[in-house]
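To fix ideas, we now present one chain and its tokenised fold:
***
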Amino acid sequence: MYISETRKSDSQKEPSEPGMSEAGASTPAARGTRVGHVLTGNVLALGMVSLFTDVSSEMVTAILPLYLIYQLHLSPLLFGLLDGVYTGATAVLRLVGGHVADRFRRRKLVAGIGYGLSAVCKVGFLLAGRSVPLIGLVVGLDRTGKGLRTAPRDAMISLSAPPEAQGRAFGLHRALDTAGALIGPLAAFGVIAAVGSTTNFNAVFVVSFCVAVIGVLVLALFVREPGGEASERPKVSLRGAVSLLRDRPFRRVLIAMVPLSLVTISDSFLYLVLQRSLDMDANLLPLLPVGVSAFYLLAAVPFGRLADRVGRSTVVIGGYVALLACYGLLLLPPGYTILFAVLALRGASYAATDGVVSALAGPLLPEEHRATGLAVVQTGQALALMVASWAFGALWTEGGPQTAVQVMGVALCLAVALAVVLLRKARG
């Protein structure tokens, strides 16, 4: 294990707690009971919120390439700009959401505002019509909601699980989240088939809004704010948040993750490369995310358990190696076997990196700055992904998709090598 992932201060240890041995360690029975309770309580409720929200968001995500490329006839460069906005233009709000949630001890409220804003934006797509600037504005506001909610939500998951179960907690959450991502494109495809038109997407936006509202209601009714009373917790200040970067293990994790995100091809571009190389019917494009989500769903919980057992850093590195293999397959002669393998590797890569990165960074952070610290990592990743979309769009425009994939593949090799060195040196 590269990093000490179960680090706790002396003040956090409670030897007198029921179920503790004389040496101060939890007995296996006590740990099992505590972990089992956690993974069926707050974590499960947050997972259901994410399930409904992802059904809603992935309905829209699945049709955006079809809508923008084939109906509005955007070039790869312009699509890359919009895709970058979707990924990271409002990433700095992750910092705002994380810090506000920590400072006022209202992680649930801040997350709820983010979920609510994203729900309202589904109606915004109806109002934007065919205007590309307005679509870009709605996309930006939708990502603002995601930026506000992600760090407080992950902080609630981290604070609701014991250190030895971080990987399993995030694995369960990401499995439910991914179940929504699996259902979303299928729902969009079904709605389009039901209305009998591949040029009118308003019905998709309406259904997406209704599903998002259900997610907000689940959050309000079933998720509790983790932690003790506000008076029991240390005061949170901006200076204290900035001081997180002085912690060497946390800083090395951050520095390792940004270059990896900077050379990650967005899913939308990945699907476009596959669709064009196979000369696939464009109307089938919304089904490609289903394959990725299916493999992600199957691997999320096992990879979370594996991360707790062999080391979260090891699993994260393995996830990016799988992504590198995915790039290599894109350069081979096209075929449906290649298509299947690419979708499988991309899903496995997500399962090994998405929640595991939060499980890796979370225990390195004090409770009072948990949301802020996770927001710092997520903001760095989101901004890097935004730049990656712009760069890939420009590379595609200048040299074609194969050249763009080759450049990103070489860069990913270098980023993985750097991450291995940094995470080893970050050993606590």
User: Anything to note?
Assistant: The chain has a mean pLDDT of 80. Residues 30-226+238-425 form a domain with the Growth Hormone; Chain: A; fold (CATH 1.20.1250.20). The CA atoms of residues 248 and 387 lie 26 Å apart. The two ends are 10 Å apart (CA to CA).
